[in-house]
Amino acid sequence: MRLLHTSDWHLGRSFHRVSLLEAQRAFLDHLVTTVEERAVDAVLVAGDIYDRAVPSLAAVELFDGALHRLADLSVPTVMISGNHDSARRLGVGSGLMGRAGVHLRTDPRTCGTPVLLSDGAGEVAFYGLPYLEPSLVRRALEAERGSHTAVLTAAMARVREDLAARPAGTRSVVLAHAFVTGAEVSDSERDITVGGVGSVPASVFDGVDYAALGHLHNCQRITERVRYSGSPLAYSFSETGHPKSMWLVDLAADGGLETERIECPVPRPLARLRGTLEELLDDPAHEPHTGSWIEATLTDAARPHDPMARLEKRFPHTVSLVFDPQREDTEAGVSYAKRLRDRTDRQIAEDFVGHVRPGRQAAPEEREMLGRALDAVRVSEAADETREVAR
Predict the structure, then answer these.
(1) What is the dihedral of CA 362, 368, 369, 373, to 10 degrees?
(2) Which positions fall inside the Nuclease SbcCD subunit D C-terminal domain (predicted)?
(3) What is the pLDDT of residues 15-35, one digit of tens each?
(4) Which fold is adopted by the domain 2-263?
């Protein structure tokens, strides 16, 4: 049986305020084309279909259109809810959708109830484990503790119990949305840790033929049978260099696997550039990135004038600007008290201006203004002291 494993669509999400709806539409077109051209028998979507619990109308329309196209191809789809989805909302109408071959699993209590699909070698049982928030599902799953490992272990116990009652040779696939120990993370994923312990060992999924995971955005293999598809698009600059793809999985009659990465269309590459503003504007080495989405980190000692507008002339898709001024601290290791010793109030104030505005000491008119302010404070203090003595 040929499976297409994908996850983390995050429909409706933007990239630094740039809409990704058209890029997401292009991905869904690519997915449907892949299903048709590569004769896929079932599509697996391992959670985070939407980017938020209450998705935009445009995101819902994208999702609805993809489901209709897959149903028109008569290709079954198995989906679970992720931590970004509202399980309740996503699961509305799941019974009716199941009749059309779209199988939504959003209720933790159904972890042990598989979707059964058949090929020439017999049945394959697909178990959908939606994102399991420990504090909310511990009681329903009768987990020993309120941790991610405990609730996933309890859910997998139900999977194994159901699988043990099925005919020998029944193959099994589990969809889950979790953070598995040893996987590579990015800045894009919402933290799901509880008490600092949010990861689960890959051994939780021992005994199944394939575990299709979602949540982490980098396509990666944890073990031969436990894999993340990653997100189809990059959603932060921490994903620069991540391959965006889906797993095409051939599940043999004996449970053996053959896998292939199917690359996803990239709407625009990402690039992280670092240097002074003049270096970024003049260095010919940056020419390949003029069409990329850019995160520029400026190392100028003093903040340049209007840097974004100047960067956009060469890199029109600059969406993130970071300042990390590089300067030599000639007084490193010297205590604050020692640096202030024998300095007047005016000198201290002027030095402070240069400290918070690296590379730009106080201008003459600023020094004059600081002097007037300090003089006014001294006059006020003297007047207060005179009034106090008079009393």
Answers:
(1) 120
(2) 267-353
(3) 999 999 999 999 999 999 999
(4) Purple Acid Phosphatase; chain A, domain 2 (3.60.21)
